Amino acid sequence: MIKAVVFDFDGLMVDTETPAYHAFCKVYGEYGKELPLEMYAQCVGTSFDVFNPYTYLAEILQHTVDPEVIRKQVDVRYKEMLQHIQPRPGVVEYLSEAKELGLKIGLASSSYFNWLEPYLTKFDLHGYFDSINTADLVQEVKPNPELYLLSLRKLEVEPEEAISFEDSLNGFTAAKKAGLHTVIVPNEMTSTFPFEDYDLKIPSMESMGLKEVILRLEQQNRVETLE
């Protein structure tokens, strides 16, 4: 029986990831370089410890530009793109439905809390969550399962009693390692990522209600993709 749902944040609830990639691509282009998506994908849903797009550009420019200069250039473009950002379609409805169903609701993010907090406040999302776990609280972020294992402990549920909602390969891997049911809801950027061995994949939360997702997961053990 499903007792809890645990959501990723960046890219899943609010698509901050696609604008970030576009901002990097714009700056790379200004230097006559390209940032392949398959390379950038390494750091989506995790930290820049895996792949750092700032230092990578500095390296291919043979260190003629300081990474800090690149960071400032990307930040300017990124902030411009985030000005009118909104929760992804169906997100608020999922949270409301989870509350109505009496489910415990968790948030597990590889970002730091001071990054999430302004968005949680702006979109009035704080009150939905019974547990919020971010990079501040763990030794390792996704794809390590620590964030999900911490969420399960705080929500007081077993892995098989919880559903994870993720948009990235690193997030999906973390949830899978922790033993949760895995639902993939890719965004514009991650829609081409090679997800495998998930429980369910849907194009958006708007395309299928939470009750139906739970019903499908409780009734089937095979991988299913809704197009």
Automatic annotation (TrEMBL):
Entries under InterPro entries matching the protein: HAD-like_sf, HAD-SF_hydro_IA, HAD_2, HAD_sf, PGP-like_dom2
Keywords, in A-Z order: Hydrolase, Metal-binding
Gene Ontology MF: a single term: hydrolase activity
Residues spanning the membrane: none
Top-rank lineage group of the source organism: Bacteria
Entry similarity comment: Belongs to the HAD-like hydrolase superfamily. CbbY/CbbZ/Gph/YieH family.
UniProt name for this protein: HAD-IA family hydrolase
Lineage: Bacteria, Bacillati, Bacillota, Bacilli, Bacillales
